[in-house]
Design brief:
By secondary structure, the protein is α/β, with parallel strands linked by helices. It is built from 4 helices and 23 strands. Among the domains are: 20-181, Alpha-Beta Horseshoe (Leucine-rich repeat, LRR (right-handed beta-alpha superhelix)), CATH 3.80.10.10; 280-368, Leucine-rich repeat, LRR (right-handed beta-alpha superhelix). Bound molecules: 2-acetamido-2-deoxy-beta-D-glucopyranose (NAG) (11 copies). One 2-acetamido-2-deoxy-beta-D-glucopyranose binds at residues 54-55, 57, 60, 64, 66. Residues 317, 338, 341 line the site of one 2-acetamido-2-deoxy-beta-D-glucopyranose (NAG).
Length: 368
């Protein structure tokens, strides 16, 4: 029974794919939008609360349908939000006909299959969210050709390939591709998305080096590329990211070389997690020094590396420090007396080092 219904829905979905739309010759209107949404409805094989099956009825205007918002001026669909409905299905190419769509939120469902190329026709789209589905195949590079696009979220799917494009993502501010199976090198066009503020490529299979051109993304606030297979050194050019707040490159066990001292010249950087890489060399001694303001540093996590030398005295002058994890590195030396001045310190992990902490107990009473 269940299987028959699935099969039937599949056939309907398939037919709707291949039939020319009733309005394919004319200009697009609200009927085009209705047909596009009906095509989507036909591609849904499981709707646990029978929500769309009941509510998306042709006896009423699409503008009354659940999850659908129409614009006042043109009376066309401007937003489609069907997130968290537990839906299973595929994404039909007809969605590319919702030509006034600005917001598309299909996150937290069980949509599978690939993303249709036709989404690139949506020239007014600003926000796409397909997080937490089972989409596979390519990240369609055509999506980056939507010049209005500001936010693209594809977290937690099964995407495996991202093709390099040229000249895309002009207004993209936020890109989340984390928790997929993306392979190959980080596509270099990402560093041409000059408006990017948030970039998360964590938990994928990216290989190769961190492109030094990422240092050109001067509006970047968050750079998160942890748990990949990156190798080579952390480029000095990341020191050009003058608005960077969070840098998360942990669990790339082949990331080598020194930590670029320029990073500690970024006055906005408050979180650095480089745990479990293969970083070597001494820590730069310009951390939290007087002549610049990296005084906002709050979280510094460098455990499980091969960082040598002593812990720079300046570190203990970062007044905002809350979490410091330096364990399992060949650090040596002493914990200085002034560590007791760090009134915000919550966690200090120094195990697996050669550090002597004569003043540790007497000076720290706020550490848990
Ligand atoms: C709607 O989309 C389908 C598939 O992408 C296409 O064949 C059809 O021509 C489109 N309709 C209009 C009115 O553009
Ligand atoms: C569909 O849902 C919307 C929003 O909850 C509601 O206003 C509308 O009456 C429903 N339509 C039908 C046919 O159930
Ligand atoms: C979509 O709808 C869900 C649940 O109704 C809501 O939590 C979410 O904020 C909406 N998403 C957007 C982008 O408006
Ligand atoms: C993006 O648009 C340009 C023209 O504006 C076109 O040449 C290129 O093929 C498009 N790329 C993709 C991946 O659709
Ligand atoms: C990717 O595309 C850019 C142009 O946008 C080009 O400069 C770069 O060489 C390409 N990279 C690869 C690996 O093909
Ligand atoms: C990036 O994505 C990972 C995996 O989904 C998540 O755990 C992490 O919090 C994200 N990073 C940021 C800075 O949001
Ligand atoms: C991007 O960065 C590279 C290397 O860091 C540099 O040579 C190039 O001039 C930069 N390009 C732009 C457009 O800023
Ligand atoms: C380091 O990262 C690798 C994956 O890159 C993981 O398998 C390993 O368990 C991590 N080691 C530690 C100590 O967290
Ligand atoms: C770091 O910043 C300070 C103050 O802005 C500047 O004097 C110094 O040259 C910078 N260091 C580097 C390596 O750019
Ligand atoms: C730390 O506090 C002590 C007093 O406990 C003070 O003498 C010293 O100057 C302070 N150090 C810094 C770096 O602020
Ligand atoms: C990175 O730092 C380690 C400690 O060195 C923590 O255990 C991790 O939870 C932390 N991870 C993230 C994503 O910040």
């Amino acid at each position: 029974m269940e299987t028959n219904q699935t099969l039937r829905l599949f056939i309907v979905c398939f037919l709707l794919h291949s039939l020319p739309s009733s309005s394919s010759l004319s200009t697009k209107n609200i009927i085009t939008d209705r047909d596009a949404l009906l095509a989507l409805k036909a591609c849904i094989t499981h709707d646990p609360d029978i929500l769309l099956a009941k509510n998306w009825s042709t006896s009423t205007s699409v503008c009354n349908w659940i999850g659908v918002t129409c614009g006042v001026r043109h009376h066309r669909v401007t937003a489609l939000n069907i997130s968290y409905l537990g839906l299973t299905g595929t994404i039909p190419p007809q969605l590319g006909n919702l030509s006034f769509l600005a917001l598309l939120a299909i996150d937290d469902n069980n949509f599978y299959g690939s993303l249709p190329y036709e989404l690139a026709h949506l020239r007014r789209l600003k926000y796409i969210n397909f997080n937490y589905n089972q989409l596979s195949g390519n990240v369609p590079s055509s999506i980056f050709n939507i010049s209005s696009l500001q936010e693209l979220r594809l977290k937690h799917n099964r995407l495996s390939l991202m093709v390099n494009v040229s000249g895309g993502g002009l207004n993209l501010m936020s890109l989340d591709l984390s928790e997929n199976s993306l392979e190959g090198e980080i596509p270099s066009f990402i560093s041409e998305c000059k408006q990017l503020q948030f970039l998360n490529l964590s938990s994928n299979n990216f290989r190769g080096g961190i492109p030094k051109e990422i240092g050109n993304l001067t509006k970047l606030k968050t750079l998160s590329i942890f748990l990949n297979k990156l190798e080579g050194e952390i480029p000095q050019e990341l020191g050009n990211l003058v608005e960077l707040e969070r840098l998360l490159l942990l669990d790339n066990v082949h990331l080598t070389g020194h930590i670029p001292s320029l990073l500690f010249n970024i006055s906005t950087l408050w979180q650095i997690n480089l745990t479990n890489n293969s970083l070597t060399g001494d820590l730069p001694h310009n951390m939290c020094s007087h002549h610049h303001q990296a005084a906002v540093l709050k979280i510094l996590q460098l455990s499980f590396n091969q960082i040598t030398g002593t812990i720079p005295y300046n570190l203990w002058q970062c007044r905002e420090l809350a979490i410091v994890s330096l364990s399992y590195n060949p650090f040596r030396g002493r914990i200085p007396r002034n560590i007791g001045n760090l009134t915000k310190l919550e966690k200090l992990a120094l195990g697996g080092n050669n550090i002597i902490g004569r003043y540790l107990i007497e000076s720290i009473n706020n550490i848990i």
